[in-house]
Amino acid sequence: MFRCTLHPIGLKGSFKVRAREKIFQVRDFKHSPEAQESRKEELEKLLQDQEAMRTSLLQWCYASYNEVFSSWMYLCAVRVFVESIFIYGMPPSFLSVVLAPSAKGEKKVRSILEELCGNVNR
């Protein structure tokens, strides 16, 4: 958006014609203090509405986080079960476990798992 101020001396008509030739839209602007004040009040009302909606959204997010996280973990567990049966051919009575060992205990956990499961997948 560009702003150009023209005085009412002769240039106004030729400027509009040249601007339209270059695919610009020229509009006349009339300053109105009442309209400006109403826009300012409308902006303040919109900002208050925005803040109210933001607080209600944050409350909803805090309340729903637990449910969303549990549902996501459930979907992950179902995916592990289905992929284990269909892709890897495991029997339906298997146990899937998620392990997160500490950095210094990782080698010990891996060696125990290799002893239990064999060297199938390292």
What does this structure look like?
By secondary structure, the protein is mainly alpha-helical. It is built from three helices and no strands. It has helices at 11-21, 33-86, 106-117. It is elongated. The mean pLDDT is 84.
Q: Kindly report how far apart the N and C termini lie.
A: 62 Å
Strand content: under 5%
| Count of distinct strands | 0
Structural class: mainly alpha
Question: Helical element count?
Answer: 3
- What is the ordering of alpha helices and beta strands? HHH
Question: What structural keywords apply?
Answer:
122 residues; mainly alpha; 3 helices; elongated
Secondary structure elements and pairings:
Elements: H1 11-21, H2 33-86, H3 106-117
Q: What's this, in brief?
A:
The chain is 63% helix and 0% strand. With 122 residues, the protein is mostly helical.
